[in-house]
Amino acid sequence: MTDRVLVAYTSKIAATDEIAEIIGTELAGCGLRVTVLSVAAAHTLHGFGAVIMGDAAARDAHRFVRRHKASLKHTPMWLFHRGAPPVPNDVTRMVRRLGAIGPVSFGGAAPDWDRAQAWARYLADQLTVLHRGFASN
């Protein structure tokens, strides 16, 4: 398994890209190789050992999941979103269908940057345990 992690986000949701960058920076600081891309720019999942995606409720995210359905069945996946609970029903179905974890919410009107950083460090620990082959820098 590879230590490469894709942090994919929808570009239309305000602050989701900033949250994705924070998560990517924290994961990289924990020794993981991270690529942060909009879901529209993520053309392949080849070579990625995990996917972290936000905002799963957006139409682009649903297209991403359909496009990469076969790969996502075998790739650990976590979801996040900027909005406040409750989670939309279509996202709940996506979580069940893919076996994804989440989604974790990072606030309503103002994103909770500290929570995003803490969650990314938690993910780094989870990924290290899940894929013992991950290299640390």
TrEMBL record:
SUPFAM superfamilies: Flavoproteins. This is Uncharacterized protein.
